[in-house]
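User: Batch of two.

Assistant: Item 1 of 2:
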Amino acid sequence: MTESVDVVLIGGGIMSATLGTLLHELQPDWKIVAFERLSDVAEESSNAWNNAGTGHSALCELNYTPRGEDRLLDSSKAININEQFQLSRELWSSWVKRGILDGPQTFINSTPHMTFVRGENDVQYLRERYALLKDEPLFAGMEYSEDSRVINQWAPLLMQKRRKGEPFAATRSVAGTDVDFGALTRQLFDHLRESGVDVRTNTEVRKLKRDKDGSWRVKYRRTIGRAPGDIKARFVFVGAGGWALKLLQGSGIPEIRGYGCFPIGGQWLKTSDPKIVAQHKAKVYSQAPVGAPPMSVPHLDTRVVDGESSLLFGPFATFSPKFLKNGGMLDIVTQVRPHNLGSMLKVAFTNFDLITYLVSELLKTPKKKVATLRQFMPTAADGDWELLQAGQRAQVMRDGKLQFGTEIVAAEDGSIAGLLGASPGASTAPPIMLQLLKQCFPSEYAGWEPRLRELVPTLGAKLNDDRETADMAMSATAAALDLTA
């Protein structure tokens, strides 16, 4: 007889971990099963070395404040992403207090967020961005300087042996963070296991089929021994990174029509030399090269993984047809359907800058990659840095355009939902999953809301519209998460 459960989670990353923990808090009587095809959770995009670890709050990411057709900068996306990250902090704070998560410093650390630009055009852009954001409540305390002595105090590695006469500028927000999403994911899954949730690793979901009663039959296969199996679920969440597209296509839901994915990989330069690491405590972002996707914005980052500090620079784009780091070589081909082929071809023909950028990145030798780092850090030496393969991102294509962000794709009846896209991704997992709860469980959500407000007191509020509330919320989560400026 086929096993029946309330919820199946596909994928052992931060999204499934967040949704599973929320559902267990709200409905402890529901039976939840999670599937992960690899030998452990948090081994793909949630793994600390596969992502930037930036608590994306738009403090330093320039692509969140684009110029409009009127040439003025637009702050709406930056404010929205900051709002979402504050909600993430609130939920993590609640889970720390409840003992669901370990001590805050096991997964989140205070790390200033900086932007550093060179050249008159980018300096002018950064001046305008600072003027636009400095008085917004969620961006309070942002600093701006074109003075080499000040920037040297903020991040000495940026200024040592820098060429004189070169225009440059920087902003700094001491409220920034570094997040080990691998540790965060593992802790949430550990809690779920201890609470009776069945987490099955080395198990690959092969097919999703809707039964006549509206439930979903999830067919899977063990990756060790190849034993097949199936399970029935009232609700299925597909949080499998780039694999989500293929599973949702196979489910037959009409909402996935028109979607495609373009895979982009990456590499980091990494150093753990304590003498170098000690001179830099910040995440420093700059402008993306022409044609580069937002996830390829260059940055020199302090990382704290498993309690040890290092520096990463990159990412350098790579290309693989795989939708996951541990995916298949035919992924980019097997996604093609009559309903998305035209859109995908249009993306190929209208994104020549992206193709040019990717080719130029692929031609870079390790020495050329260190030379790129020297634009940030003039004293960088080849022997101090090693190349590290980052994660694989499946960028969403739809309506003939590459879309940047993270998008919920759900059936009309809410019985199945999946997540497509990339950055800001993990940083905004809590608000994305809260939105999914509201969208997929409309009849239950009203009853859940009081409990959700206990976990996230500012749920539904626009923090940036109320300075006093914003200050109180940020101060409370900073204290709970031990984030000291």
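Item 2 of 2:
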Amino acid sequence: MSKSTDLIQADRGQDAISIHLVDKNGFDAWAKTLGAGQRAALAAQKFDGSGYQTAIVPDGDGWFAVGGVANTEKLSSWCMAKLAEVLPAGTYRRAEGQPGPAVHGWQLGQYKFTRYRDDKDAEGPRILLTQEAKGVDMALAEARAVCLVRDLVNTPAEDMGPAALETEVEKLAKKFNAKVSVTKGDQLEQEFPMVHAVGRAAARHHAPRHMHLTWGKESDPVVAIVGKGVCFDSGGLDVKSSSGMLNMKKDMGGAAHAIALAGLIMEAGIPIRLHLLVPAVENAISGNAFRPGDVLQSRKGLTVEIGNTDAEGRLILGDALTRASEENPEFMIDFATLTGAARVALGPDLPALMARKDASAQALIDAGKAHDDECWRLPLPEAYGEWLKSDIADTNNAHGNAFAGASVAGLFLDKFVAEGIDWAHFDTFAWRPAAKPGRPKGGEALGLRAAFHMLRERFGKE
């Protein structure tokens, strides 16, 4: 995504190339309005109005673009993303109306991760004009938030360790005049013992820490956002395979979502008392790594037997959720790349949602559907809680069978959320294994827009 140019701009009558959006059902009728040469150009490009098709059509001394969409009456966030990827640099406007939600995919179709190499062959930006000026600033902010998640997740662990996540939280605080407290070292061991235990084996420059950002009036409703910040996950002493470790730079994807969501909330000015909590660690292997069979103390006072050192994300979240609960929030949400079981159940595109209250779950589901960021609810069945029993501690961190892994992980987290709190949990993948229009392979925001629009609807004021 261009960092120097807003890719969505208000339409003030500027010179622009027209884009016609056509669906397959209306293609024949629309094509009849064209000249014979123009129809021949479409035929040569095998354009028939199917979704994500693109074509360029001569028009006198110039040309116009055509994009195939599923339904011209109901545009999606992604229906113009392919156009943004393939059209020449320039300024464009939709010919038969406004782009509406498609402005989102138009921006993200131009995203590229260029931290480690120059994209010398890249063309200039493709700018899309809209007369819906009221929503332009928020559309730009949402796209920036998604790009932030992508950038953070795509960055290798050596450059995106706990200290780098701390820097991101500090940048956010400076931008929006928020306050940040960072806990590390001996104080971390005392106040967030499970965060310390998981991260203590890492090298000094990747030392564990807990960040806590606060923003907003103290009289406003309290909302807490928690993000799992495992900056790299070797699996610990229960070490992963080489293939299982390959993409573990993305294990801080929950923290990336939480940071981006907090930024959106502050930019939108939603009147809440915001608490952003990010426990950040590297789950490394060394002589002082925590071991299978160890019993850890937690901030809440529960003792946790370690059945698997590769189930570490729920440990650091346990301490952070306990701290968030101490603020007695009206709503609390966490994001975590928590289980492979969620991906087995739902695949890479759908984040698993678990929630205590049906109304909050439904509000998140509805917001996701409305903004092309769908999630799918999984249960928190109390009966499965017995699988986390320990013979020597209050609970185990992992269960010994292969059943319902995502839900059992959610049940573990639930132990650390204070009774009565309206809490939701996203087990998100934060990764796209194969590209789609507007959504390149690599880091991805999944559940971010659903959560933002749900919070905006519940707590926002127009």
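The chain has two domains: 8-126, 141-459.
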